[in-house]
Amino acid sequence: MLEFGSAQWGVDRILGPPVTRRGGRQGKSVAEVAHYLQVQQTSKVDLTCLGDYIARFFHHDLTHSTRENTKFYVKNGNKLAISLKAWTQQIFIRAGQDAYFGPKLDELSPDLPLDLIRFDELSWQVFYHYPLALRKEGTSLANKIRTALKHYFELPKSQRLAKAWFVEALEDECRGVGLDTEEVASQMLFLYWGINTNISKMGYWMIAHALFRPHLVDLIRNETALAFENSDIPDGEYISNVQKCPKLNAFWLECLRLASSSTALRYVTEDTIIGDKILREGHTILMSARQLHLNTSSNAFGDDAAIFEDERFLKNTHLERNLNFRPFGGGKTLCPGRHLAKYMALTFVAQVFRKFDVTLAKDQPFPAYEEDKPTIGILSGKEDLLISLRARDGRQGM
């Protein structure tokens, strides 16, 4: 949190024993309560309510804004094409921002999603303690995003109109331990980044895999057809249900397995011997899930662990619960937003292929995973894909 601009006193109050406590949560720090609140926000009825709101946002954006927004168009010879990376980044970030912060944040800072995209590309510098003198751009972007959030939290709550109750509840917790608006904005910067970045990359990878494997497009359209039976907006609960859409859910898990590079961070509190290694007190241990996901010597994913197999999790339904499969971390740091991430990715992909015929704008290889840069969540594509969209309702494509 210090690396995201919080003051030491603010961090102490977030992590330390609270000054006051409400709702029977005595003894919990604000950080612990934040995790609890996010779990509640993304569970059961609250998950469905928030997920359906975001699905409606996707519907509107794909129906209107995708035709009007030129920020993700790039030149392709003498024509224009859509950058798959920019398109998925912007639509997911705008959807998450609107759901958690309401439309007012976009009014205050329309280019905030673009600032976040660039900040995310540099965020590894924060977690790996890159020297401050060498990360001036990242620091400048963090300050810019924090300033926008500060202006947002200066507004009366009645003007924000966020669908999610989580941000307002967490703000109350922060102010309850004495944080001022500046510190609230600093704490929320980490939240704003965490909610809005990793999931857009899953949208990118799922569409990329489907483009290079046309049978997946037919699979998505056929298996999700009933989810659109009564509306142009899909039934997210139906799509996310592994019994209703088993192949789509298996496709999601395989994309997640190959793209996830979630990193568990643990501090060594005393000298510890593991095998012939000594872990010294005061050091930090980073453990990447990617090595587990690609390990061919384990009995989890087999000799073809490095290869995409869309039915891998369909053929072995126990793999999702295998200890080697950790796309969202584990233990106390298990990502509380994992259910919403799935809801968003599947409702987005289902709508894209229902509304559009998606094709490559030119001959391009399948993008490599960006493994050269440290990552703590979902890997980006090393290369972009240029795509064309043609509306399936007969209207002009893009």
Automatic annotation (TrEMBL):
Q: Which domain of life is it from?
A: Eukaryota
- Name any cofactors this protein relies on: heme
Bilayer-crossing residues are none
InterPro entries the UniProt entry points to: CYP450_sterol_14alpha_dmase, Cyt_P450, Cyt_P450_CS, Cyt_P450_E_grp-IV, Cyt_P450_sf
Q: Which SUPFAM superfamilies match?
A: Cytochrome P450
What family does the entry list?
Answer: Belongs to the cytochrome P450 family.
Q: What is this protein called?
A: Cytochrome P450
